[in-house]
Amino acid sequence: MTNADVVAVAKAGRTAEPEPVLSASGLVKSFPLRRNLLGRVTERLHAVDGVDLAVAPGRTLGVVGESGSGKSTVGRIVARLVRPDAGRVVVAGRDLTEVRGEELRRARADLQMIFQNPWSALDPTKTIGHAVAEPLLVHGRIGRADMAAAAAELLERVALDPGLVDRYPSMLSGGQRQRVCIARALAVGPRVLIADEPTSALDLSTRSEILNLLLRLQDDGGQAVVLISHDVTTIKHLAHRVAVMYLGRIVEDGPVDEVMGDPRHPYTRVLLSAVPQPDPEAAARRERIVVAGEPPSPVDLPSGCRFRTRCPIAVAECAAVDPALTAVTGQHRVACLREGSGSLG
Fold first, then answer.
1. Which of 18, 129, 167, 180 could form a disulfide with 56 if both were Cys (CB 3.0 to 4.6 A apart)?
2. From CA 336, how far away is CA 264, in angstroms rounded?
3. Domain named ABC transporter: which ranges (predicted)?
4. Ramachandran class of 323: left when φ > 0, alpha when ψ lies in -120 to 50, beta otherwise
5. What is the pLDDT of residue 339?
6. Looking at the predicted structure, is the pLDDT value of residue 5 above 80?
7. For residue 36, what are the domain limits?
8. Where are the alpha helices (DSSP H) in 222-344?
9. The sheet that has 22-35: what strands, in order across it?
């Protein structure tokens, strides 16, 4: 599949949104950093604050933002690897927020995660066959005698040699390991895949192969995908919808063509202006936006709009009002008092 094919497949059917198979509402998560002598928390890191998202079968929701924006924590909450302080996660009509034990184990068959680092995601003491087929064993789909055959079939689905079942992770390249992780995630037939920076640890040529593979598998199986990435270009080409995060909040979301083609939040415009442009003439014409300073600490968040301390068009009201996501056109929403304002330069 060529890069043009990737774009064509990813953009197909962006107009009509079916009912979501995954929905999350009001997600909040903070992590205690310090406690006093009585054990009471005196300092917290606010990672996620009031995040809502939804994704339908066969669709991809891209979650984009710089490091520290909270996007990976959102992915781990949705995958039930981290419990939220508040909010709900519903998959196929089942609220996963409070499920425990055996019920949670059964629910995980509908929701699988592909991790960022394929080197740390695989147990170096277990064979590839064991790693790939173990979810089937855990969920009672097969017996131990059937693991090798099941693993070989799954490896073929991700374009790997079935003969790798007896090898160990140290014998594989980074791209092969990530394909193994994808095969493992697909083993129990999940309805939702959470892909957290699935290509960031790989070289450029391998990244394209893995992204093409994810597209093909989604086209075949119809999974809903939450694709978490700091790479705006990847999100632009592969996602149907996009949510832009900054300091634990979604500041803009909507259909990817609308958000990327007509960004309304200053932070989204900053992200897009930093994307390399291969055409020198187009690069020269493009507005290049440089913001001052680093993001505020998630331990001590600013009042009002969280981007105001770096925003080139902030006004006094931005320090007093914390803007909510508001629809600007159809499904395109933005959280900014000055949305759509002119040049940021």
1. 18
2. 8
3. 33-272
4. beta
5. 82
6. no
7. 3-259
8. 232-238, 256-261, 266-273, 280-285
9. 41-55, 22-35, 86-91, 94-95
| Partners of 332 in beta bridges | 329
Contact yes or no for 228/250 (Cβ under 8 A)? no
Q: Are residues 314 and 269 in the same domain?
A: yes
**How far is 214 from 188, CA to CA, in rounded Å?**
16
The gap from C-alpha 221 to its chain's centroid, in whole angstroms, comes to 19
Asked whether 69 and 246 are in contact (CB, 8 A), the reply is yes
Tell me the β-bridge partners of 227. 62, 195
In a domain, 339, yes or no: no
Shared domain for 287 and 218, answered yes or no, is no
Cα 191 off chain centre by = 15
Is the CB of residue 10 less than 8 Å from the CB of residue 237? yes
Work out the end-to-end distance of the chain between its first and last CA atoms, rounded to an integer number of angstroms: 39
Q: Long-range contacts: 198-205, Cβ < 8 Å, 24+?
A: 198/114, 198/115, 198/116, 198/227, 199/234, 200/116, 200/229, 200/230, 200/231, 201/116, 201/117, 201/118, 201/119, 201/174, 202/118, 202/174, 202/175, 202/178, 203/174, 203/175
Give the pTM.
0.89
Residue that is written with structure tokens 């959470």 in the block: 194
- Cα separation, 240 vs 55, whole angstroms: 9
Handedness of CA 34, 299, 65, 90 (dihedral sign): positive
pLDDT tier for residue 97 given thresholds of 50, 70 and 90: confident
